[in-house]
Design goal:
Helix content: 40-55%
CATH topology of the largest domain: D-Maltodextrin-Binding Protein, domain 2
Shape: rod-shaped
Distance between the termini: 52 Å
Largest sheet: 5 strands, mixed
Order of helices and strands: HHHEEHEHHEHEEEEHEHEEEH
Radius of gyration: 32 Å
CATH superfamily of the largest domain: Periplasmic binding protein-like II
CATH architecture of the largest domain: 3-Layer(aba) Sandwich
Oligomer: single chain
Structural class: alpha/beta
CATH class of the largest domain: Alpha Beta
Number of strands: 12
């Protein structure tokens, strides 16, 4: 059934006559009369009865008019949702992020996303593995990643978002913890290191080894941990020092002191599929770029 016919039925029921409904709809009276008769013939039922000079819906007509109003309301809602989706104001968005992001500016930025995009179904997943985050964007598990060390792949688009120092998190009792100013890179050779297992976060593992190479020191591995909380707990227990993004200071682990690591920095990147046309992804990036 043509959706316009439903509008015709509603107009006839509300106006109470063919002539008034035709004026409202900018149709000729014969045209509207013919549309009504054709519909009644197809349904094999009378939809209106004449009372005096007006028309009143029959019991069958009232059912159809009520349904027509519901269909029109649903159609308006659907069209509104389509327009909102086209503007990136509704839909589902799955974001994966690193701990350094959520402990830094990302938490506040996500709060802004929630306020500005209340209709969006925002799904968040923390990850400790940079390679897995990038792979998840590529295979469609995630729409966007906020990560330090994205995979280099022509299918991925990246944009730097937030820059911060790398920091050496030290046992509070260690002599290096009491020196003033940033810790020199050579400090990496003066204390065992608490690091990620390479199979958990190969990019982070390689990053620390590259820093030791720059410093001309051979790293000594004191312990390995699979989460930031575990790494910092091992630092507090005296197993060694951890190299992490400075934003992890927000965790305020007792018996741990933090010193920026001289001549180093790290950047959080926004990572998404290069060919993704999603206006929601674009709007999310714009909000974060404005928050960075």
């Amino acid at each position: 059934m043509d959706l316009r016919i439903l509008g015709y039925l509603i107009a006839i029921a509300e106006e109470g006559s063919i002539s008034a409904a035709a004026r409202r709809l900018h149709l000729t009276q014969p045209t509207l009369t013919r549309q009504l008769r054709d519909l009644e013939r197809r349904l094999d039922v009378a939809l209106f009865t004449r009372e005096g000079r007006g028309l009143t819906p029959t019991s069958a007509g009232r059912v159809l008019v009520d349904r027509a109003r519901s269909v029109q309301a649903e159609m308006r809602t659907a069209l509104d949702e389509v327009r909102l989706a086209a503007q990136g104001l509704t839909g589902r968005l799955t974001v994966t992020f690193s701990g350094s992001g959520i402990n830094g500016p990302l938490g506040e930025a996500l709060g802004r996303v929630r306020r500005e995009l209340p209709r969006v179904d925002l799904r968040l997943e923390e990850s400790f593995n940079d390679a897995e985050m990038s792979d998840g964007v590529l295979d469609g598990r995630y729409d966007i990643a906020v990560q330090r060390l994205p995979r280099r792949d022509a299918r991925l688009a990246t944009a730097p978002w937030w820059r911060e120092p790398l920091t050496l998190f030290l046992p509070a009792a260690h002599p290096l913890a009491h020196a003033a100013g940033p810790a020199p890179l050579a400090s990496l050779g003066q204390i065992p290191l608490v690091i990620w297992p390479r199979e958990v976060s190969p990019h982070s593992y390689d990053e620390i080894h590259d820093l030791c190479l720059r410093a001309g020191v051979t790293p000594r591995i004191g312990a390995e941990g699979r989460t930031v909380q575990t790494l910092l707990a091992l630092v507090a227990a005296g197993f060694g020092a951890a190299v992490l993004a400075d934003s992890h200071r927000a965790l305020r682990r007792v018996r741990v002191a933090a010193r920026p690591l001289a001549e180093t920095s790290t950047t959080l990147h926004l990572v998404w599929r290069a060919e993704d046309p999603s206006p929601l992804v674009k709007r999310f990036r714009a909000i974060l770029a404005d928050s960075g």
